[in-house]
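hey so i finally got around to running the thing on that chain from the lab meeting. sorry it took forever, my laptop kept dying and i had to restart like 3 times. anyway pasting the input first so we r on the same page abt which one it is
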Amino acid sequence: MSSSVAQFLQDLGMSQAASQTLTWGIIAAAVVLIAVPATWLVRNIVVRAINIDMSSIRFITDDQLDSLSKIQLLGDYIRQKQKEIEEDNKRRSVDTSVIINGRRQTNIGIFRAYVAAYLRQHPKINKEMTFLVRHLQPGE
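ok and heres what got predicted. didnt touch it at all, straight out
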């Protein structure tokens, strides 16, 4: 298991057991490569589900944002998303002193961005094919 991925998941507030399970799921999610003539139309659909305990989802603190933005795959995403959130909260005159008011980043949103960034930079992912990482309803 990659210790950096496990540490990242623990930084998001997930337990060690949950982070080990998720890390293994990310690493074990392999892309099926099919050797076919170049004239064939090929569509690979690889579906991997990562089940996440809903009670582990929470808002990210400013300290966590600072720490997580040092991760190379996440830095640009976190800065861009934080700027977007702050501008939206300011435009709507949101009282952010109460945590539930306005928009904030969550550990699941940052984890989703990490998975997408990791897969986009992976050498076995075909950059010319459609690529999708999404949230599903529980049980889907």
